[in-house]
User: Which sequence fits this backbone?
DNA sequence: GTCTATAGAAGGATAGAC
DNA sequence: GTCTATCCTTCTATAGAC
Protein backbone atom coordinates (compact mmCIF):
# COMPACT_ATOMS: atom_id res chain seq x y z
CA UNK A 1 0.00 0.00 0.00
CA UNK A 2 1.55 3.29 -1.09
CA UNK A 3 1.46 6.58 0.81
CA UNK A 4 -1.21 7.83 -1.54
CA UNK A 5 -3.57 4.98 -0.91
CA UNK A 6 -3.71 5.66 2.79
CA UNK A 7 -6.78 7.36 4.06
CA UNK A 8 -6.24 11.07 4.38
CA UNK A 9 -7.08 11.08 8.07
CA UNK A 10 -4.42 8.48 8.69
CA UNK A 11 -1.85 10.43 6.71
CA UNK A 12 -2.63 13.56 8.67
CA UNK A 13 -2.38 11.68 11.93
CA UNK A 14 1.02 10.27 11.05
CA UNK A 15 2.34 13.60 9.84
CA UNK A 16 1.06 15.25 13.01
CA UNK A 17 2.76 12.59 15.11
CA UNK A 18 6.08 13.26 13.45
CA UNK A 19 5.85 17.02 13.73
CA UNK A 20 4.50 17.13 17.29
CA UNK A 21 7.11 14.68 18.56
CA UNK A 22 9.81 16.67 16.85
CA UNK A 23 8.75 20.20 17.72
CA UNK A 24 6.42 19.81 20.68
CA UNK A 25 2.93 21.27 20.93
CA UNK A 26 4.14 24.88 21.14
CA UNK A 27 6.74 24.59 18.41
CA UNK A 28 4.61 22.64 15.93
CA UNK A 29 2.96 24.51 13.04
CA UNK A 30 -0.22 23.46 11.30
CA UNK A 31 1.33 24.42 7.98
CA UNK A 32 4.23 22.09 8.71
CA UNK A 33 1.90 19.20 9.46
CA UNK A 34 -0.12 19.88 6.34
CA UNK A 35 3.01 19.90 4.19
CA UNK A 36 4.23 16.64 5.72
CA UNK A 37 0.87 15.04 4.97
CA UNK A 38 0.90 16.43 1.45
CA UNK A 39 -2.31 18.42 1.88
CA UNK A 40 -3.33 21.93 2.94
CA UNK A 41 -4.16 23.53 6.27
CA UNK A 42 -7.89 23.67 5.65
CA UNK A 43 -8.06 19.90 5.47
CA UNK A 44 -6.42 19.55 8.85
CA UNK A 45 -9.21 21.58 10.35
CA UNK A 46 -11.79 19.62 8.40
CA UNK A 47 -10.62 16.37 10.04
CA UNK A 48 -9.57 17.51 13.50
CA UNK A 49 -11.18 20.95 13.96
CA UNK A 50 -8.40 22.48 16.09
CA UNK A 51 -4.68 22.10 16.73
CA UNK A 52 -5.53 21.16 20.28
CA UNK A 53 -7.75 18.28 19.27
CA UNK A 54 -5.19 17.03 16.80
CA UNK A 55 -2.51 17.18 19.45
CA UNK A 56 -4.64 15.36 21.98
CA UNK A 57 -5.33 12.54 19.56
CA UNK A 58 -1.62 12.16 18.89
CA UNK A 59 -0.60 12.47 22.51
CA UNK A 60 -3.06 9.90 23.78
CA UNK A 61 -1.94 7.40 21.19
CA UNK A 62 1.73 7.88 22.00
CA UNK A 63 1.45 8.01 25.77
CA UNK A 64 -0.81 4.98 25.75
CA UNK A 65 1.67 3.04 23.68
CA UNK A 66 4.48 4.05 26.00
CA UNK A 67 2.65 3.16 29.19
CA UNK A 68 1.54 -0.20 27.87
CA UNK A 69 5.15 -1.09 27.29
CA UNK A 70 5.78 -1.22 31.04
CA UNK A 71 3.19 -3.55 32.41
CA UNK A 72 3.33 -6.77 30.37
CA UNK A 73 6.96 -7.42 31.16
CA UNK A 74 6.13 -7.94 34.79
CA UNK A 75 3.42 -10.47 34.01
CA UNK A 76 5.81 -13.03 32.59
CA UNK A 77 6.36 -16.13 34.67
CA UNK A 78 10.01 -15.61 35.44
CA UNK A 79 12.33 -15.27 38.36
CA UNK A 80 12.92 -11.77 39.68
CA UNK A 81 16.35 -11.60 38.11
CA UNK A 82 15.08 -12.80 34.77
CA UNK A 83 12.26 -10.25 34.84
CA UNK A 84 14.72 -7.45 35.41
CA UNK A 85 16.93 -8.59 32.55
CA UNK A 86 13.89 -9.03 30.35
CA UNK A 87 12.59 -5.58 31.17
CA UNK A 88 15.76 -3.71 30.27
CA UNK A 89 16.25 -5.72 27.13
CA UNK A 90 12.71 -5.17 25.91
CA UNK A 91 12.19 -1.65 27.10
CA UNK A 92 15.45 -0.23 25.87
CA UNK A 93 14.87 -1.97 22.55
CA UNK A 94 11.52 -0.20 22.32
CA UNK A 95 13.18 3.13 23.06
CA UNK A 96 15.85 2.46 20.47
CA UNK A 97 13.02 2.30 17.95
CA UNK A 98 11.37 5.40 19.40
CA UNK A 99 14.17 7.49 20.85
CA UNK A 100 12.28 10.76 20.92
CA UNK A 101 9.25 9.56 22.84
CA UNK A 102 10.64 10.03 26.35
CA UNK A 103 11.55 13.67 25.82
CA UNK A 104 8.28 14.38 24.11
CA UNK A 105 6.10 12.80 26.77
CA UNK A 106 8.04 14.18 29.71
CA UNK A 107 7.94 17.68 28.31
CA UNK A 108 4.28 17.74 27.32
CA UNK A 109 3.21 16.34 30.67
CA UNK A 110 5.23 18.88 32.60
CA UNK A 111 3.61 21.67 30.55
CA UNK A 112 0.18 20.24 31.19
CA UNK A 113 0.05 17.73 34.06
CA UNK A 114 -3.69 17.25 33.60
CA UNK A 115 -2.97 15.29 30.42
CA UNK A 116 -1.59 12.34 32.34
CA UNK A 117 -4.50 11.82 34.71
CA UNK A 118 -6.87 10.49 32.11
CA UNK A 119 -4.25 8.00 30.94
CA UNK A 120 -3.23 6.81 34.37
CA UNK A 121 -6.77 5.78 35.14
CA UNK A 122 -6.38 2.96 32.66
CA UNK A 123 -3.07 1.63 33.99
CA UNK A 124 -2.88 0.17 37.47
CA UNK A 125 0.62 0.69 38.70
CA UNK A 126 -0.19 -0.05 42.31
CA UNK A 127 -1.37 -3.53 41.51
CA UNK A 128 1.51 -3.93 39.10
CA UNK A 129 4.11 -3.49 41.77
CA UNK A 130 1.97 -5.03 44.49
CA UNK A 131 1.83 -8.20 42.40
CA UNK A 132 5.53 -8.00 41.72
CA UNK A 133 6.19 -7.64 45.41
CA UNK A 134 3.91 -10.53 46.40
CA UNK A 135 5.45 -12.83 43.82
CA UNK A 136 8.99 -12.22 45.00
CA UNK A 137 8.35 -11.40 48.61
CA UNK A 138 10.83 -13.86 50.03
CA UNK A 139 13.67 -12.89 47.71
CA UNK A 140 13.06 -9.18 48.19
CA UNK A 141 12.56 -9.44 51.92
CA UNK A 142 16.00 -10.97 52.34
CA UNK A 143 17.51 -7.81 50.93
CA UNK A 144 15.51 -5.17 52.77
CA UNK A 145 13.12 -4.27 49.96
CA UNK A 146 9.69 -3.80 51.53
CA UNK A 147 6.36 -3.01 49.96
CA UNK A 148 6.93 0.58 51.03
CA UNK A 149 10.12 0.89 49.02
CA UNK A 150 8.66 -0.68 45.87
CA UNK A 151 7.87 2.75 44.33
CA UNK A 152 11.50 3.77 44.85
CA UNK A 153 12.66 0.56 43.23
CA UNK A 154 10.32 0.72 40.25
CA UNK A 155 11.10 4.35 39.55
CA UNK A 156 14.80 3.63 39.84
CA UNK A 157 14.46 0.90 37.24
CA UNK A 158 12.52 3.14 34.90
CA UNK A 159 15.02 5.97 35.41
CA UNK A 160 17.90 3.81 34.31
CA UNK A 161 16.10 2.88 31.12
CA UNK A 162 14.40 6.13 30.15
CA UNK A 163 16.72 8.88 31.30
CA UNK A 164 19.52 8.30 28.77
CA UNK A 165 17.01 8.91 25.99
CA UNK A 166 15.48 11.97 27.61
CA UNK A 167 18.96 13.39 28.15
CA UNK A 168 20.32 12.20 24.84
CA UNK A 169 21.51 15.64 23.74
CA UNK A 170 23.70 16.06 26.80
CA UNK A 171 24.90 12.48 27.01
CA UNK A 172 25.79 12.36 23.36
CA UNK A 173 27.80 15.54 23.79
CA UNK A 174 29.70 14.11 26.73
CA UNK A 175 30.32 10.69 25.22
CA UNK A 176 31.56 12.28 22.04
CA UNK A 177 34.46 13.79 23.95
CA UNK A 178 35.51 10.32 25.10
CA UNK A 179 34.98 8.74 21.71
CA UNK A 180 31.99 6.63 22.63
CA UNK A 181 29.04 6.33 20.26
CA UNK A 182 25.60 6.89 21.78
CA UNK A 183 24.11 3.82 20.11
CA UNK A 184 26.89 1.62 21.44
CA UNK A 185 26.38 3.09 24.87
CA UNK A 186 22.69 2.24 24.74
CA UNK A 187 23.34 -1.27 23.51
CA UNK A 188 25.70 -1.86 26.43
CA UNK A 189 23.16 -0.39 28.76
CA UNK A 190 20.71 -3.26 28.41
CA UNK A 191 23.13 -5.45 30.30
CA UNK A 192 24.75 -2.89 32.53
CA UNK A 193 21.46 -1.61 33.93
CA UNK A 194 20.09 -5.10 34.50
CA UNK A 195 23.18 -6.29 36.38
CA UNK A 196 23.33 -3.01 38.27
CA UNK A 197 19.81 -3.41 39.60
CA UNK A 198 20.20 -7.11 40.31
CA UNK A 199 23.31 -6.45 42.36
CA UNK A 200 21.61 -3.61 44.16
CA UNK A 201 18.63 -5.66 45.30
CA UNK A 202 19.91 -9.20 45.66
CA UNK A 203 23.24 -9.02 47.39
CA UNK B 1 16.83 46.13 48.50
CA UNK B 2 13.33 46.21 47.04
CA UNK B 3 12.27 44.90 43.64
CA UNK B 4 12.16 48.45 42.35
CA UNK B 5 15.71 49.28 43.28
CA UNK B 6 17.09 46.44 41.20
CA UNK B 7 18.59 47.39 37.92
CA UNK B 8 16.11 47.02 35.11
CA UNK B 9 18.30 44.61 33.22
CA UNK B 10 18.46 42.34 36.23
CA UNK B 11 14.70 42.48 36.72
CA UNK B 12 14.17 41.57 33.07
CA UNK B 13 16.62 38.73 33.34
CA UNK B 14 14.91 37.29 36.39
CA UNK B 15 11.47 37.62 34.87
CA UNK B 16 12.70 35.98 31.68
CA UNK B 17 14.18 33.14 33.70
CA UNK B 18 10.86 32.49 35.40
CA UNK B 19 8.83 32.59 32.22
CA UNK B 20 11.23 30.60 30.06
CA UNK B 21 11.63 27.87 32.66
CA UNK B 22 7.89 27.71 33.05
CA UNK B 23 6.80 27.84 29.41
CA UNK B 24 9.89 26.89 27.45
CA UNK B 25 11.38 28.90 24.59
CA UNK B 26 8.47 28.20 22.21
CA UNK B 27 5.73 28.74 24.76
CA UNK B 28 7.18 31.90 26.31
CA UNK B 29 5.80 35.29 25.26
CA UNK B 30 7.72 38.55 25.34
CA UNK B 31 4.64 40.30 26.69
CA UNK B 32 4.50 37.83 29.56
CA UNK B 33 8.12 38.49 30.44
CA UNK B 34 7.60 42.25 30.25
CA UNK B 35 4.61 42.05 32.58
CA UNK B 36 6.52 39.91 35.06
CA UNK B 37 9.32 42.45 35.07
CA UNK B 38 6.87 45.30 35.44
CA UNK B 39 7.91 47.02 32.24
CA UNK B 40 6.89 46.98 28.57
CA UNK B 41 7.93 44.95 25.58
CA UNK B 42 9.96 47.70 23.96
CA UNK B 43 12.32 47.74 26.90
CA UNK B 44 13.00 44.04 26.55
CA UNK B 45 14.23 44.67 23.05
CA UNK B 46 16.22 47.67 24.18
CA UNK B 47 18.21 45.50 26.60
CA UNK B 48 18.39 42.17 24.78
CA UNK B 49 17.50 42.97 21.15
CA UNK B 50 15.74 39.67 20.36
CA UNK B 51 13.87 36.90 22.11
CA UNK B 52 16.58 34.53 21.02
CA UNK B 53 19.35 36.53 22.66
CA UNK B 54 17.35 36.87 25.84
CA UNK B 55 16.71 33.16 25.89
CA UNK B 56 20.35 32.34 25.30
CA UNK B 57 21.43 34.53 28.17
CA UNK B 58 18.97 32.79 30.47
CA UNK B 59 19.76 29.31 29.22
CA UNK B 60 23.50 29.65 29.60
CA UNK B 61 23.14 30.88 33.13
CA UNK B 62 20.82 28.04 34.12
CA UNK B 63 22.64 25.22 32.35
CA UNK B 64 25.94 26.46 33.70
CA UNK B 65 24.58 26.50 37.23
CA UNK B 66 23.20 22.99 36.77
CA UNK B 67 26.40 21.53 35.34
CA UNK B 68 28.55 23.09 38.02
CA UNK B 69 26.50 21.29 40.62
CA UNK B 70 27.90 17.94 39.51
CA UNK B 71 31.64 18.31 39.59
CA UNK B 72 32.58 19.68 43.02
CA UNK B 73 30.99 16.81 44.86
CA UNK B 74 33.49 14.40 43.43
CA UNK B 75 36.42 16.53 44.50
CA UNK B 76 35.81 16.06 48.18
CA UNK B 77 38.31 13.94 50.01
CA UNK B 78 36.00 11.12 50.97
CA UNK B 79 35.64 7.39 50.58
CA UNK B 80 33.72 6.19 47.54
CA UNK B 81 30.67 5.35 49.62
CA UNK B 82 30.73 8.68 51.35
CA UNK B 83 31.00 10.48 48.02
CA UNK B 84 27.96 8.70 46.70
CA UNK B 85 25.91 9.52 49.79
CA UNK B 86 27.15 13.10 49.65
CA UNK B 87 26.26 13.43 45.98
CA UNK B 88 22.66 12.31 46.34
CA UNK B 89 22.11 14.40 49.44
CA UNK B 90 23.53 17.55 47.86
CA UNK B 91 22.25 17.10 44.36
CA UNK B 92 18.70 16.17 45.25
CA UNK B 93 18.64 19.05 47.71
CA UNK B 94 19.60 21.38 44.87
CA UNK B 95 16.83 19.96 42.71
CA UNK B 96 14.33 20.34 45.53
CA UNK B 97 15.10 24.05 45.38
CA UNK B 98 14.93 24.09 41.57
CA UNK B 99 12.49 21.33 40.63
CA UNK B 100 11.75 22.63 37.15
CA UNK B 101 15.32 22.89 35.93
CA UNK B 102 15.74 19.28 34.75
CA UNK B 103 12.68 19.33 32.53
CA UNK B 104 13.57 22.74 31.16
CA UNK B 105 17.16 21.88 30.32
CA UNK B 106 16.40 18.44 28.93
CA UNK B 107 13.70 19.80 26.68
CA UNK B 108 15.57 22.81 25.37
CA UNK B 109 18.64 20.74 24.61
CA UNK B 110 16.66 18.12 22.74
CA UNK B 111 15.06 20.89 20.65
CA UNK B 112 18.46 22.39 19.93
CA UNK B 113 21.39 20.07 20.69
CA UNK B 114 23.87 22.70 19.53
CA UNK B 115 23.15 24.68 22.68
CA UNK B 116 24.96 22.19 24.89
CA UNK B 117 28.22 22.04 23.01
CA UNK B 118 29.39 25.48 24.03
CA UNK B 119 28.69 24.67 27.65
CA UNK B 120 30.34 21.26 27.65
CA UNK B 121 33.61 22.77 26.56
CA UNK B 122 33.92 24.36 29.97
CA UNK B 123 33.22 21.20 31.99
CA UNK B 124 35.58 18.27 31.81
CA UNK B 125 33.58 15.17 32.48
CA UNK B 126 36.22 12.79 31.22
CA UNK B 127 38.75 13.96 33.76
CA UNK B 128 36.03 14.08 36.37
CA UNK B 129 35.32 10.39 36.12
CA UNK B 130 38.88 9.48 35.24
CA UNK B 131 39.94 11.03 38.54
CA UNK B 132 37.12 9.33 40.34
CA UNK B 133 38.17 6.04 38.87
CA UNK B 134 41.85 6.48 39.69
CA UNK B 135 41.10 7.45 43.27
CA UNK B 136 38.98 4.39 43.92
CA UNK B 137 40.55 1.95 41.50
CA UNK B 138 41.11 -0.80 44.00
CA UNK B 139 37.62 -0.66 45.48
CA UNK B 140 35.96 -0.48 42.07
CA UNK B 141 38.15 -3.13 40.52
CA UNK B 142 37.08 -5.64 43.14
CA UNK B 143 33.51 -5.29 41.91
CA UNK B 144 34.01 -5.37 38.18
CA UNK B 145 33.71 -1.63 37.52
CA UNK B 146 36.35 -0.74 34.94
CA UNK B 147 37.30 2.58 33.43
CA UNK B 148 35.22 1.59 30.41
CA UNK B 149 32.05 1.24 32.46
CA UNK B 150 32.51 4.52 34.29
CA UNK B 151 30.21 6.40 31.89
CA UNK B 152 27.48 3.83 32.50
CA UNK B 153 27.97 4.23 36.23
CA UNK B 154 28.01 8.01 36.26
CA UNK B 155 24.96 8.28 34.04
CA UNK B 156 23.15 5.76 36.20
CA UNK B 157 23.85 7.86 39.25
CA UNK B 158 22.66 11.01 37.56
CA UNK B 159 19.54 9.24 36.26
CA UNK B 160 18.52 8.22 39.75
CA UNK B 161 18.78 11.80 40.96
CA UNK B 162 17.44 13.77 38.02
CA UNK B 163 14.79 11.59 36.43
CA UNK B 164 12.18 11.85 39.20
CA UNK B 165 12.15 15.62 38.71
CA UNK B 166 12.00 15.45 34.93
CA UNK B 167 9.14 12.97 35.20
CA UNK B 168 7.47 14.68 38.11
CA UNK B 169 4.11 15.00 36.38
CA UNK B 170 3.82 11.27 35.81
CA UNK B 171 5.35 10.17 39.09
CA UNK B 172 3.17 12.52 41.09
CA UNK B 173 0.14 11.10 39.31
CA UNK B 174 1.13 7.53 40.11
CA UNK B 175 2.13 8.16 43.72
CA UNK B 176 -1.09 10.03 44.33
CA UNK B 177 -3.01 6.82 43.67
CA UNK B 178 -1.05 5.08 46.44
CA UNK B 179 -1.30 8.00 48.84
CA UNK B 180 2.36 8.98 48.74
CA UNK B 181 3.37 12.64 48.61
CA UNK B 182 5.93 13.57 45.96
CA UNK B 183 8.00 15.64 48.39
CA UNK B 184 8.17 12.76 50.84
CA UNK B 185 9.18 10.45 48.05
CA UNK B 186 12.01 12.75 47.08
CA UNK B 187 13.18 13.15 50.65
CA UNK B 188 13.35 9.36 51.00
CA UNK B 189 15.15 9.15 47.72
CA UNK B 190 18.33 10.78 49.00
CA UNK B 191 18.99 7.68 51.07
CA UNK B 192 17.39 5.07 48.88
CA UNK B 193 19.36 6.04 45.79
CA UNK B 194 22.65 6.24 47.68
CA UNK B 195 22.25 2.81 49.26
CA UNK B 196 21.02 1.40 45.97
CA UNK B 197 24.13 2.49 44.13
CA UNK B 198 26.48 1.49 46.93
CA UNK B 199 25.02 -2.01 46.99
CA UNK B 200 25.20 -2.23 43.24
CA UNK B 201 28.89 -1.40 43.01
CA UNK B 202 30.40 -2.67 46.24
CA UNK B 203 28.97 -6.10 46.83
C1' DG C 1 16.03 54.73 29.72
C1' DT C 2 11.30 54.26 29.29
C1' DC C 3 7.08 54.77 27.16
C1' DT C 4 3.05 54.45 23.39
C1' DA C 5 1.93 53.23 19.02
C1' DT C 6 2.39 50.50 15.20
C1' DA C 7 4.63 48.01 11.54
C1' DG C 8 5.17 43.51 9.59
C1' DA C 9 4.98 38.70 9.70
C1' DA C 10 3.05 34.36 11.00
C1' DG C 11 -0.18 31.41 12.86
C1' DG C 12 -4.82 29.24 13.61
C1' DA C 13 -9.14 28.96 11.81
C1' DT C 14 -13.11 29.67 8.46
C1' DA C 15 -15.82 30.71 3.96
C1' DG C 16 -17.03 29.20 -0.12
C1' DA C 17 -16.05 27.27 -4.79
C1' DC C 18 -15.50 22.89 -6.98
C1' DG D 1 -13.42 15.67 0.49
C1' DT D 2 -10.28 18.96 -1.08
C1' DC D 3 -8.77 23.28 -2.58
C1' DT D 4 -7.79 28.64 -2.67
C1' DA D 5 -8.38 32.76 -0.56
C1' DT D 6 -8.82 35.31 3.38
C1' DC D 7 -10.02 36.74 8.10
C1' DC D 8 -8.54 37.67 12.65
C1' DT D 9 -5.56 37.38 16.24
C1' DT D 10 -1.18 37.25 18.24
C1' DC D 11 3.56 37.82 18.27
C1' DT D 12 8.19 39.85 17.57
C1' DA D 13 10.31 43.86 16.63
C1' DT D 14 10.93 48.86 15.57
C1' DA D 15 9.91 54.04 15.31
C1' DG D 16 9.72 57.97 17.59
C1' DA D 17 8.15 61.05 21.45
C1' DC D 18 9.52 62.26 26.09
Assistant:
Amino acid sequence: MSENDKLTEERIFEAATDVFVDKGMDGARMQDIASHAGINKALLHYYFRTKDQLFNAVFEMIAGRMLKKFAPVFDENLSLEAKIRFFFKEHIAFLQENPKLPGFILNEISRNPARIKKLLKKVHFESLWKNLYEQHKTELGKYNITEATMPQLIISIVSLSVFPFAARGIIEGILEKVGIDFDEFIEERKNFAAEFVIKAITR
Notes: The mean pLDDT of chain A is 92.
